[in-house]
Design goal:
With 218 residues, this protein is mainly β. 9% of the residues lie in helices and 36% in strands. A hairpin with an 8-residue loop joins strand 10 and strand 11. It is globular. The C terminus is likely disordered.
């Protein structure tokens, strides 16, 4: 185990502790925030890890886990490839985003490969050089109103293939024993997600001209 892999979970947990102490309530999910996504249908968090699929694309696997504290369930919200969103800017309903897995720097991805357990569409983590991938990393945020609210249930629709990010309820064996299969489906079944724990970035109420200060919170 490297020093970096040991320090990183401690650093994340330290930031989460600070966010509890100094955090300030914001109602929006925003660009640059580091969040966990909770599937409200199966009660699992979107998860990835340095374990590759043994079939399909052979890319890094994406699953659902019931373990709330797992640091490998953190994702940072980014703009689409070649686009820029300001840190703290609310994510609008209908926006196209990327979700970068914090631990491995790969993006939530999909493509026309069958998933391992149910033969739905495979969901993987893909990309190199700190999250540089392709258009298969683009997801449309489907929500009510103008912006993604933290308490709202949303859906994520894959831009290239028009599938919804979903969970089947089927569980894997070793080496990811008990974790649930995450897939893409053509109809929005078990496709409801909510922002759970995380570091929510938002501008300060005390803005000076065009400059803003970012707070974090749990």
């Amino acid at each position: 185990m490297t020093c970096t892999s040991t320090i990183f979970p401690i650093f994340i947990n330290f930031l989460l502790l600070l966010s509890q102490i100094e955090g300030k309530k914001t109602q929006f999910v925003t660009c640059g925030s580091v969040i966990k996504l909770f599937n409200t249908d199966y009660k699992v968090r979107l998860h990835s890890h340095d374990v590759k699929y043994g079939s399909g694309s052979g890319q890094q696997s994406v699953t659902g886990t019931e373990v709330q504290e797992d640091v490998n369930s953190h994702w940072v919200i980014k703009a689409a490839t070649g686009k820029i969103c300001s840190r703290g800017e609310p994510i609008g309903c209908g926006s196209v985003i990327r979700l970068e897995h914090v631990s491995t720097k790969k993006n939530l991805h999909s493509h026309h490969f069958p998933s391992p357990l149910s033969s739905n569409q495979e969901i993987s983590a893909y990309g190199d050089n700190s999250g540089e991938g392709d258009t298969g990393d683009h997801w449309t945020v489907i929500c009510k109103g103008d912006s993604w609210l933290r308490d709202d249930s949303i859906m994520l629709k894959h831009m290239d293939t028009d599938v919804y990010l979903s969970v089947t309820g089927r569980s894997y064996g070793r080496p990811i024993n008990g974790q649930l299969e995450v897939v893409g489906v053509t109809s929005p079944s078990s496709s409801h997600w909510q922002a759970a724990e995380g570091l929510f970035i938002h501008p300060s109420d005390f803005q000076v001209k065009s400059h803003s200060y970012a707070h974090t919170e749990l």
